[in-house]
Predict the 3D structure of the following.
Amino acid sequence: MNPRILLIEDEPGLVLTLTDRLLAECYTVDSRTDGESGLAAALEAAHDLILLDLMLPRKSGLDICRALRRQDIATPILMLTARGQLVDKVVGLQLGADDYLTKPFEFPELMARIQALLRRAGRNGAPATPATFGFGGATVDFRAGQVTRGGQSVPLSAREFQLLRYLIERRGTLITREELLREVWGYDALPTTRTVDVHVTWLRQKVEDDPRHPRFILTLRGLGYKFSA
Ligand code: CA
């Protein structure tokens, strides 16, 4: 399978040139020319790498980057910035971009960066969890950040998705509410253990056949939760 690249760039000339040259290098290329449709494309399907222009109509590259990382989409992002956008580069890296390249650039330079990111993703990106995980009638696509049940997409909030992923990664073991608060919510929020229970209830309503008698997301009374393996 050819690596699949999503190109989000609004300069028609650059889109044309890059698409041609990437196709010639045996990549599959999807392109979008504004931020909104670019983000939608990134959320819709899994890509191996995103080439993301910084200045885009409708939604900036930084906003896209932030939105993707919030949804736990870990696809490598190579940002394309114009000369002098140094501050934005720094912010971009903070927001989860993996690398950046200043325009105008030479194509071999771009190829080297793309190959390095793909290599890195292949080597270090080997996740503790498989790309997808199925239980009951549900399938979780970790890369795309999506859950489907019976062929239908299940709308989960970013937090619900993180919670589900955490439970699945540690399936078969007891997980306390405090651990979930620490690992899923983090220190920046101040939720209570009741928050965890509420989110678990919501999650069950979305992924369990009978949320009142869950088969997968089990309560261990007085202890916490366990995802039944
Ligand atoms: Ca632009």
Remarks:
- Residues 132-227 form a domain with the Arc Repressor Mutant, subunit A fold (CATH 1.10.10.10).
- The chain has eight helices and eleven strands.
- The first strand starts at residue 4 and ends at 8.
